[in-house]
Write a structure and sequence with these properties.
Layout (H helix, E strand, L loop, with lengths): L12 H15 L12 H4 L1 H20 L17 H14 L5 H23 L1
Length: about 120
């Protein structure tokens, strides 16, 4: 098995995605340059990277978990996009040093379930 917990149980893909997101925002592969008028995208580049890699982990680990269909990840449509709101949440949780791995694992789980539902409705 890919990742084994302390009690020999498999760590689920949502927790792996959340841990990877946390690792990326902690390491900060994109160094921030403080500039006046800096765009949201440049301020949150690490958070974008971490979140998108987390979504890809959820999708790619489905096969390892016995689900042999690739999922088209869908995010809820809102006035301000779900993606931007989630990136802001990650950004501010990192600033406040209160990133919750289990809460973000639940967010990845809910995005996966939302995507599955949307895909099944779109087929009808």
């Amino acid at each position: 098995k890919f990742l084994i917990g302390a009690d020999n149980s498999i760590i689920d893909r949502h927790k792996v995605a959340s841990i990877m997101t946390y690792s990326i925002i902690s390491i900060k592969p994109f160094k921030k340059i403080k500039e006046k008028g800096e765009s949201f995208d440049s301020r949150c580049a690490n958070e974008f990277l971490g979140f998108l890699i987390g979504l890809d982990i959820v999708n790619s680990f489905r096969e390892k978990d016995g689900i042999f269909t690739t999922l088209n990840i869908a995010l809820p449509e809102k006035e301000e996009t779900y993606l931007i709101e989630t990136i802001k949440t990650i950004y501010y949780s990192e600033i406040e040093n209160n990133y919750d791995i289990f809460a973000f694992a639940n967010i990845y789980f809910m995005i996966e379930k939302y995507s599955e539902l949307k895909e099944s409705f779109d087929k009808k």
